[in-house]
Amino acid sequence: MIGNSGSKLRALIELTRFEHGLMVVLAIVIGALSSGELPLNINLALASLSGLLVEIGIFTLNDYLNVAEDSVNKPWRPIVRGDVSKGEALMLSSIALCSAPLISLPLLFDGLTYAFAILITALVLGLAYDVKLKKLPLIGHCSVAFSTALPFMYGSYLARGPTPLTLSFFILAFLASLSREIIKGVQDIEGDRRAGIKSLAVLYGPSLTLKYAFAIMVIAIVMSPLPLLFIRNRIAYMLMITPSDYLLARASLIALRSPKGRDLERSRRLSLIGMGLGMVAFLIASL
């Protein structure tokens, strides 16, 4: 019984991509710090929890709706392999997405209107992506990248609002995420084609699509020193952003040189580590 419970918990963590949720929480904290103040109060806790719940709900709903594609692209996903039922996934997603705005309501009552509006925007955009936007060329990729960068703005509005440093984080996160999503479209090309999803990879083929993704990542890397204009601890930032840039560049090159399943998965994992290091660099820059 304990073993079964442990397996179910691991499957649910995998289903919700909980590591992405932790990055959302970190981005919210970084956003608040970048505005010049970290509000160590109940509002920060509510914002972090609501942001985490939106991430859990949207990712879980995406897997619920993507069973046909995942049976081709990712047969190891929890629903496809039978570790989590579709009913369980739908229930978890519904609870998370209904709870998030309720938990964040005190932000609205406390005058943090923009923060509450950003949470609702992220929720609606995520739902729109799961249901419709992912089938549209480029718009689907951009919506995911925008949602990935949005927590920095969410966090900033818990304090004094966005600063040039906040905006630099938003831009860099958007570009890196956009490149990563385009590469992910190449990885998912077979299932997407069958499902009628018009990703760039489906429309233009893997080779040209990966060149676009690489060019966008190069732009992100070239722009990565941008926060240096607004911070004091420049050396510490560069010591952390440099390995992040290296991993992101390497991930893009791996995909560009060998657009095959195993190498694309390796590229995906490297880029996630690179983005994680980038988040740490952003945190250092905000202190």
Topology (SSEs and partners):
Elements (H helix, E strand, L loop, with lengths): L1 H15 L1 H17 L7 H24 L1 H7 L4 H4 L4 H24 L3 H19 L7 H18 L7 H24 L1 H7 L4 H5 L1 H18 L10 H24 L3 H26 L1
Q: Can you characterise this structure?
A:
The protein is built from 14 helices and no strands. The protein starts with a helix and ends with a helix. It folds into two domains: 162 residues, UbiA prenyltransferase (Tetracycline Repressor, domain 2, Orthogonal Bundle), CATH 1.10.357; 125 residues, Up-down Bundle (Four Helix Bundle (Hemerythrin (Met), subunit A)), CATH 1.20.120. Helices cover 81% and strands 0% of the residues. With 287 residues, the chain is an all-alpha fold. Helix 2 packs across helix 8. It is globular.
Distance between the termini: 46 Å
Secondary-structure element series: HHHHHHHHHHHHHH
Structural class: mainly alpha
- Strand tally, please? 0
Low-confidence stretches: none
How many helical stretches?
A: 14
Return the CATH topology of the largest domain: Tetracycline Repressor, domain 2
Percent of residues in beta strands?
Answer: under 5%
The CATH H-level superfamily of the largest domain is UbiA prenyltransferase
Instruction: State the oligomer.
Output: single chain
What is the annotated CATH architecture of the largest domain? Answer: Orthogonal Bundle
Shape: globular
